[in-house]
Structure formats: structure tokens, C-alpha cells
Amino acid sequence: MKHKVATTVNGRQHEHEVEPRLLLVHYLRDVVGLTGTHIGCDTSQCGACTILVDGKAIKSCTMFAVQAEGKSLTTIEGMAKDGELHPLQQAFWDEHGLQCGFCTPGFIMAASYLLSQNPNPTDAEIRQGLEGNLCRCTGYVNIVKSVQSAAKAMNGSKAKAGEHSATARRS
Amino acid sequence: MAVTTMIGAKIHRREDPRLVSGEGRYVDDFTRPGTVFLAVVRSPYAHAMVKSIDITQASKAPGVVAIYTHKDFAKVLSGTMPVTPAFVAEKKQTPPRFPIADKEVVYQGEPVAVVLAETKYQASDASNLIDVEYEQLPAVMDIDKALEAKSPKVHTGGPDNLGWDLTYIPDDPAVEKEADVVIKARILQQRLAPTSMETRGVIAEYSKPDGTLTVWMSSQSPHFVRLFLGGAMGIPETRIRVISPDVGGGFGCKISPYSEDWLVPAAAKLSGRPVKWIESRTESLQTTTHGRGQVFEVEAGAKKDGTLVFIKATQYLDIGAYMGTFSAFQACACLLAGGAYNWKHVATRTVGVLTNKVPTDPYRGAGRPEATHLCERAIDLLAGELKMDPAELRRKNFITTFPHTNHFGLVFDSGAYEKALDMAMKIAGYETLRKEQEEGRKKGKYLGIGLSSWIEICGFGPSAATAPATGGIALVESAQVRVFPTGSVAVYVGTHSHGQGHDTTFPQIVADTLGVPYDSIELHHGDTAEGPAFGYGTYGSRSLAVGGMAVHKASKKVVDKARKLAAHMFEAAEDDVVFDQGHFYVKGSPDKRKAFGEVAFASYGAGLPEGMEQGLDAVAYYDPSNFVWPFGTHIAVVEVDAETGHVDLKRYIAVDDCGNIINPMIVDGQIHGGIAQGISQALYEEIVYDDDSGQMKTGTFTDYMVPSANEFPNFELGRTITPSPTNELGVKGIGEAGTIASSIAVINAVCDALAPFGIKHVDMPASPDRLWKQIHDARGTNHDGKGAR
Predict the structure, then answer these.
(1) Which of A136, A163, A169 to mutate to test the interface with B (most CBs of B within 10 A)?
(2) pTM of structure
(3) What are the tens digits of pLDDT across the range B338-352?
(4) Which in B29, B87, B450, B649 has the greatest CB count within 10 A?
(5) Main-chain phi, psi angles of B247, to 5 degrees
């Protein structure tokens, strides 16, 4: 038996009929077709599937799609605005906060919620705030730097413009 | 070299905009029209006979397309999974491995049947309805017991459980007598799950009319998979295309081919539908190869003045139920047991032992973390016996002249070990730390300082050494450079980038070699349909020192041809043409110059020199003359809470030397990640099986601890640069360095912290419960806390 579910994903409205047991992460990836939200475990430890549900960070493998009825969802694909990277995306790029990139969407979403709650976190607060997300490549050093850098940019007079290209950038 | 503006520069990664935008494309992000989803039915037992498989219920389940077992796969797959000779050419026994079990299962998770269904939920549902009847057999779980004559066999009908037994260099009792102090240690290298955040996954599509097979998979070495898969399926390589797109980490566990790499393509051929399988995390922990899984018996001796005399080590390696493709590579630990030091004698032996567990295979460092661990632990134990500062004992015995040939005939290309030690001690404030330690101990505060002066063999490798190790294919590397008429450049390589940033760093090399703008260069990798006929893949910190050199070599071939053409255009002798900063000119006339792009355009036109073909492409295979030998010193500073056994890693200092650097940002990133994995082995991670049943107890992330950001401090990095004389770029490798160095830096620090209790050894992971018990045993307090303090 299928259930109707209506959601808003990254500002666009969607309506689908889904199995009641369909996980929200599978709904986003397989039904809506947004594959930026990743799956790294079966038990809600890794955080790769973190998205925002009505502005709050949620591991989308812990919800059924039908529980998202009427909710506004933001995924990594919804972070850049008008062709400009979100300051967190820009900061992860600037600070080498990713290597294989698989965990990165989840980290960026979790960090965006963290900064919405605590715009000036200490390093320790960042480490604690992101403990629900696992990364195997970076040793977290540059992830912490990235979140600090984004916090500064978001608090500063003007966020650095995102250069959404592969042009050589030095620093 | 034409220009040197890009090599060494901190260039931000060009792969990042797509990866931070959710536009990376990993295997699970692809679906072919008409795809069916595959679920694997796996043995719940470590060792059992398969009595029957009943598919009646499952085949009636909604959406089920097909169910296949051994007898079906035997029609389309032949031979056994590959096992390379690696460092142990002669094996006592190599149990034949077909990708799916027939009558006997020998580890928990071994495939027994597969289900194909229209959706992944349906495939999973139906897989639970397959009724397999097993007759359980005794599981061989302990490597000591496995070697006893009365032990049950891992494979019924096997002669015993010995995989290999090879002595590289025997003991020398005469030399051993020269030692005034001797230490012994038994070092356990626990099994680890490599744990790339993206699990494995395979999609396969078979075209019956064309007889072609296309496979998308998460792999570090797609060309090797194509080679082996072609053999297993009887399809020529020209009709197999393996695409390894964005890959979410490898760490060694995506080098060797797996059962599913055979079963998914075979199922596509059998069913006539594209087939997709994505590994769950539990499947990953149970069936993706593990790392380490070794025990070392170590003995070392020194003279009273601190002169090192001998070290000897026996490696007992838990092979698992089958030999991993590169399992025996881990025996390289035996060849580096002497580390960075001069010893009069080094003796080593490796013993491979079969058990009813998933096979072990290379995991980040593969043999070199184990070598560093045993050697650096021996040094600290000797320092303790000699009442010498561990830094001083190291300094006194470092190898100082290069090239240095070690006891096993390996030639260390360059090094400056003392310099790295000095820098690490300076960053750490070593003397101050020692004073703090002394003060702290008076107040019951147990600070520990652990050193690790590591070396590494990497950049695999010279054909003469590596072709015998793989059974014929040398681990050289290939690159193709194609210059288009406008002067833009496409580079195709046989290495694979899954986090290492090759899309950025290889074009940095090309930009300097060709003198063209970095932005006009595109890198392609991971698709066997593109580029040279064979690529050797990414592992063993080889991509730059071997693959980067292939890119450099192919680029130079392009310049050589362009120079000939430029000379013709200038009507000058080739020797008189200068190539500088991306421009050609005749000696003495730098104002009349032609840009590389102009020459590229001309190469596609008329009026070329006689005999010259159009175009400006080149292919190069680079065969290094030697391995490369990075090194460094790491220092861990810990505080152990004697009441709880908790280890607080307060600081971590790393000074590493990987020769010349292409992009410092990426080098630092590699070191960070490597350090974290080694720390994690020291303190957190461990695959645990039940000794009797062979059931894995750590089958999810709730039980297998992958540490979060909260478990680490920031790492303090320093760097020395000692170029490699082995290659023209002067580069070494850095992918594994952090892991090679860090587990023992932490363990030495923990042992140092616990020295006041007389504790000289801790097993990994040095978890609070383990340390708490050791501290209480040492104090003579009972575990119920009522004993005397």
C-alpha cells in the first residue's frame, strides 16, 4: 500500500506516492533524484545523510519519507544560491576540508545547523557539534578549520564570493 | 623543465566545487534503465556445510527476477579469485576461492546465493526468504591454536592451516651474544576494518548482441579488475569497460577484486538486465578485507653504550579463510623491521595462518605500520633498559649515509633522519615536556611522550621487483598526453584519485612541463576505455612517484616533438631552439618566439618536417629505478587517567619528509588523515570475533568505533625536504606516512605514561577498560576496588 507524501525540497514542491517504510534518504535519492545526500552506514552513526528538516539537522536515514509530510527539506543541492557557493561550501573548498568528498555533504549540512545555533563556536564546540558525522580522510583538522572560516565569513561584513569554477586558485 | 610556477604551489582543488555541491558521482548515484537490484544471501556461520538451499518462497516474492546460486554462476564464471605471489612467492597452500560458496562456507558473510529484484527493498525482502540449511563445523579463530596439529581445519580436507612460512634472514646467535641488554615483546596488530565512508558497490550491464560488458564500481584499480574479470568471464579486455567514478575513499580495501565484482557482472549476463549492488555497512565490516591481523614476536639487543646490535621478529599473519589477492604483501613488514637504524643483524620470518575469518589484505600502510611499530617499540624498550632517553638512543643509531642498502638488499634512496627528529622535538618542546612529566608524576598526573622515527618503502615500483610480486604485471605507471589544436591538453592516467587530489596536482606537473596554463589542462582517470592500454592504480603511495612521473615523461615527449616542429618553423637547427616558459625561440632571439599553442596548432596542419606525423600526442610508461623512501619523526603527548584508564591525547606533532612537494595543502591533508587512522588503531578500533562461534561482534558502527572529531586534537605539522634522487621530480609518497608513524607514537606515549607502574606493554586498542585493568594489576589493587592502594 502506498502513501501520498508532499514535501518541499530545496524550495521546490514534490508530491509522490511511496511505500510507508521508505526511508527519507532513499526518497531523496531514488524518488526525488537528488543524490548529493549519501549513505555511509545502516545504523545512523555516520551522518553522511544529514539534511535540514525545517531548518534542523536530521540524519535522513532515521526518518521515513512519510514523516516528512508537509515539511521543508534542505539538501546539499539547495545550499548554493544564484550560482554562488554557500559560505560553508566555499570554506570547505578553501581550507581543504574534504578529500574523497563522500562525507562532505553531511558535514556541511550538520555544520550549517551548528552555526545557526552557535555562530561563533570554539574549536572544541565544533568538534563536539559535529560528533555525529564521520570522516575517514581528513583527520577532521581541516573540517574544523573550514567551519571556523565559514563562521567568520558568515559573521563578517561580506561573505567571500564563491568562484564556482575549476580555475586555478592559489593562496 | 620549462617553468616552475605550479609545482610546489598551494592550488585549491578543482574537484571540490562539484563535491561540495552534491554533484559528485559515486557508484550508487548511477542507475541504468531497466536496472535490477541484487542482494546477497550470506553465511551466518564462520564454518559450515551447506546442506540445501530452498528458494521456493523467495522466488514467489514480489518483484523477484531471478535467484542464482553456485551452480548458475559456474556456467558463466571460471577459475578462482586471483592470489599474487607478493613478497611470499612460495605458498604452502592457497585454498581455491570461487566467488560464491558451493558445499562449504568458511567465513561469516561468504556469499551463498543472490537475489535479483525490481527494487532494492524487494531484493532485500526476498533474500530473507531463502532457506539455507547448514551443518555447523568447528571454526578456527585463533592463529596460535590454528597451528596446533590437533586443530580443526579451516577448509575440511585441507592439509593443515599453514598458508606460508618463510624465513627471510635467519637468527645469528653469535651476534646476539654481543648484546649487553636484550628485550622481548609480543605485539598484537589487531584486525581493522579499512572503512572507507563509501562502501563498495558494483553496477554491471552486459550487451548480448555486442558481447560487451560495462561495469561501474568503486575501485582503486579498475584496470586490474578488468584484467581479472576478463579471465573469469572469458571476455576479451577490449570488450570490457570498467569505470571507477568518484570513489568515497579506498585505504587499500578497494584494490583487490571481490566476489561481488564477479557475481554482479555474471548476474547481468545471466539475467540480461543491468544489475546493481551496493554494499551495506554490515556487509562491509563482515566481508570487505580487513587490515593488519598480525602478531609479532620481537627480540632486540644493544650494547651498554646504546649501540644497537640485533633485532629479530617473527610475523604471524592471520590470512583469513582465503588468501587475499595481495595478502602476502603485508609480509613486507619483515623487510623493514630494522627501521631507520643501523643494526649488526636483522632476522625475520613470516608465517601466514588460515582462519575462518574474512581475508586480510593491504590497509593503509600495509606492513609498514607494523614494521615501524615493532621497531620503534623495541627502541623504547631498549632505551628503558639502558636508562637512556629514547630520543638519544634513536639519534645515536640512525642511518646517516645514503644510498643505504639494508639487510634485505633494499636501497634507501635518501634521508636526513636526525633533522626530522630535531624539528619534531623542537616543535614539541621536548625538554619542557620531560620536566612537566617529572613534575606531574609527583602529583599523580601521568603524562607520556611517545616518539616514532619512521621510514617507509613506497612508490611501487620497479618492474624487476614488482612483476614477480604480482605474477607478471609490473607496477609501473602509464600516462597519455593529448594536445588539441588550440593548445589545450587532456591527460589520461592509469592511477585513480579517490581523495588524493590528482585532478589538481597532475595538471600542476603538466603545466610546468609544457608551459601551458593550468586551466587548459584536464585530467582523466578511472575509465579503462580511455587512455593507455593498462593503468596500474592507486595504492602504496605510488601515484605521484610513479604515476606523476609517467605524466611528466609523456609531457616531455610532447615537448620533444613540438621542439622539432618549432625548429622547422624557425628554419633553425633543433639544438638551437630554446623552450622556456611555454615558448620556443631560437637562441639569441627571444623576441621572435612561438607559444606552445601556436606550435600545437601547426602540428595539425600542412608543411610538417619530412616524416613527421600530424598531431601532438604521447604515451609514456614510467618504470622507476628504485622505490622511494619517505621518513620523519612523530611525537604523541598523552595523559593517562590512572583512575579510569582513559587516554587523553593532548598533542600530536608530526614532521614528515616526502621529498619535493607538488602541492603542500594536499600533502598536509594526506598526513592529517593518515595520523588519524593510526591513532585510531592505537586507541579505538578493533574487529572482534567470538572465539567459539566465529560470529563478528563488531558488525555495525555501534560496535566498531570509527572516531569522530571529538576524539582528536589538532595535529601540529612540520616538514623537511630531502629530494629523492630516484626520479626527476625528486618526489616520494605521502599517502600512508601518517598511518605508518602514528600508532606506535601513541602506544609509546601510553607506555611512557604508565612507566611509573612498571607497565612496559599495552595491547591495541589501548582502551580505558584494558588500561584500567593493567594499572590495577600493577598497583596490586583488586578489580573490585577494595585492594590496597
Answers:
(1) A136
(2) 0.96
(3) 999 999 999 999 999
(4) B450
(5) -125, 130
Residues 6 or more apart whose Cβ sits within 8 Å of residue B255: B219, B220, B221, B224, B325, B326, B361, B362, B537, B539
Quick: pLDDT tens for B755-764. 999 999 999 9
Mutation site, B3, B21, B200, B700, interface A, largest A CB count within 10 A: B21
DSSP symbol at A33: -
B25 within some domain: no
What is the ipTM metric for this complex? 0.96
C-beta atoms of B197 and A102 within 8 A = yes
* Contact (CB, 8 A) for B290 and B226: no
Q: Do domains A3-76 and A87-155 have the same CATH topology?
A: no
CA distance B357 to B341: 36
Q: Is the pLDDT of residue A158 over 60?
A: no
Interface residue A96 vs chain B (CB under 8 A): yes
Statement: A3-76 belongs to CATH 3.10.20.30: yes
pLDDT on residue B631: 98
- With beta carbons under 8 A apart, name residues in chain A contacting B709: 126-128, 130-131, 133, 135, 140, 143-144
Indicate whether B184 and B236 sit together in one domain. yes
Residue B469 is assigned to a structural domain of this protein: no
Asked if B156 and B202 sit in the same domain, the reply is: yes
B521 with B559, same domain: the answer is yes
* Pairwise CA distance, residues B629 & A34, whole Å: 44
Q: Domain A87-155, CATH 3.40.1010.10 — does that match?
A: no
Report residue B34 as a C-alpha cell. Answer: 531497466
Last residue of a domain, one of B583, B607, B622: B622
Residues 5-34 of A with CB under 8 A from B: 19, 21-22, 29, 34
Region B126-153: mean pLDDT is: 97
Domain boundary among B386, B411, B429: B386
Say whether both B718 and B778 belong to one domain: yes
Query: Are B715 and A141 in contact (CB < 8 Å)?
Result: yes
Query: Percent of chain B scored above 70 by pLDDT?
Result: 98
Beta bridge partners of B717: B654
B615 and B689 share one domain: no
Domain that holds residue B608: 477-622
> pLDDT tens across B164-218, in order?
999 999 999 999 999 999 999 999 999 999 999 999 999 999 999 999 999 999 9
pLDDT tens figures, A96-144: 999 999 999 999 999 999 999 999 999 999 999 999 999 999 999 999 9
Smallest CA–CA distance, residue B17 to chain A, in Å, is 6
Task: Tell me what pLDDT residue B449 has.
Answer: 98
In a shared domain, residues B665 and B605: no
A142 touches chain B (CB under 8 A): yes
Residues 509-528 of B with CB under 8 A from A: 517-519
Ordered by start, the domain boundaries in chain A are 3-76, 87-155
Angle between helices B417-428 and B430-442 (to 10 degrees): 50
- Does residue A120 contact residue B656 with C-beta atoms inside 8 Å? no
Give the pairing type, strands B631-640 and B275-278: unpaired
Q: Is B465 part of any domain?
A: no
**Does residue B430 form part of some domain?**
yes
pLDDT at position B1, please? 42
**pLDDT tens digits along B493-534:** 999 999 999 999 999 999 999 999 999 999 999 999 999 999
- Inter-chain contact B13–A39, Cβ cutoff 8 Å? no
Number of compact structural domains in chain B: 3
Same domain, B426 and B438: yes
Chain A hits for B25, Cβ within 8 Å:
35
Distance CA B280, CA B288 (A): 11
